[in-house]
Amino acid sequence: MVRLPLALPTTTTFLSMSSNFEKLAIEIQDTILENLAGDQASLYQCLFVTRTTRRIAERILYRHVTLPATRKCLMSFANHIEASPLNKYVKRLTIVCPYYMHTTRKTCWHLRRVLRQLPRLEHFELVDEEGCDREADWLDRINFLRELTVPLRRFSWGRLVRLDSRGRVSQFLNNTPSIEHLEITKMEPSSKLELADDSLPRLKFLSSSSTLATELAVTRNIECLDTFGLNLDTNQEEDPRAECVLKALSLHDTRAFPQYIDCLPNLRCLHLHSADRDILERDFITAFNSRKIQHIRAWFTCEDEESVVVELFEAVPSLRIVELEVLDEVANVNVKTFERWERGGTCSVGKRSYAQGEEWHSGWEMEDRVDA
Length: 372
Hints:
Layout: E1 2-3, H1 14-17, H2 26-34, H3 40-46, H4 51-61, E2 64-68, H5 71-82, E3 92-97, H6 105-116, E4 123-128, H7 138-141, E5 154-158, H8 163-174, E6 181-184, E7 205-208, H9 210-217, E8 224-227, E9 248-251, E10 269-275, H10 282-290, E11 295-300, H11 305-315, E12 321-326, E13 335-342, E14 347-353
Parallel strand pairs: 1-2, 2-3, 3-4, 4-5, 5-6, 6-7, 7-8, 8-9, 9-10, 10-11, 11-12
Antiparallel strand pairs: 12-13, 13-14
Helix pairs in contact: 2-4, 3-4, 5-6
């Protein structure tokens, strides 16, 4: 991942000390450098070892580019990739809007220049720094999205969807059928997206407000959903569009979960952002058993979570794994610590790393992803 302006410490890697490294097969060199993907300093040093390591390191460094939404930075990056072949490596672009300034018309013009030059882009992400809901600026008024003509797989709009931007975001989504992963988490009440009935045919993951989540959960083949709450109506069962294929649900409003379990016939994995002993009540246990829930991940607010886990395993025969998210004040914001309990009493503690913007859902098959 590249963050500009680039400021990397001087680091001596084992590559520069090994005269035999360049004799290894390219596939082996590639595997070794991939293991350095989280270490920008070492990858930067690899640019100066051999031509092969330079090419591999460039591919890894430019795979995810993060840029602040400033005129100077966007202009500099646009000029940089115009004069080099590095643009072909960029698969993910994150634009971060600084909280202390508004974007200008010239900033948007240079953003459009950048987007035109990324032929292999798969994921575009726009976020506001510090999560602030700023006033509308040029990013809301100018349709820079029309420069995204590549078949994106992931689209993340991390700022408030306003009346100013609603039409442009809706038009982009209607015209981009390749999107499989969509994040639109903040919307003004009057800014409901205007989506065509046949839009987003490949959508598999959605992170959004309750209104959009409810609409798309029963009209698209969404398998993973992250939302505050759902407004599903159990009376819609006769509606052929209401055959919800949802397999994994991340829910912020835990209390209402048992009310719409009948609308989720394929649910197997559940993430509860806030849970206590209430999930042992009859309504919850009945809901878990009716869908044969296999995997529960939770942030518990009670102190006796260990006894809750034991009782969950006893009450829900289908349950195989319970993961408890643990508060770790030392860990990086993109690293989460979990206590992982398996049926039979096995317990282990591990950390899971996430790239910026990567979500909880990124691996419900996480048996192999927890490192003790």
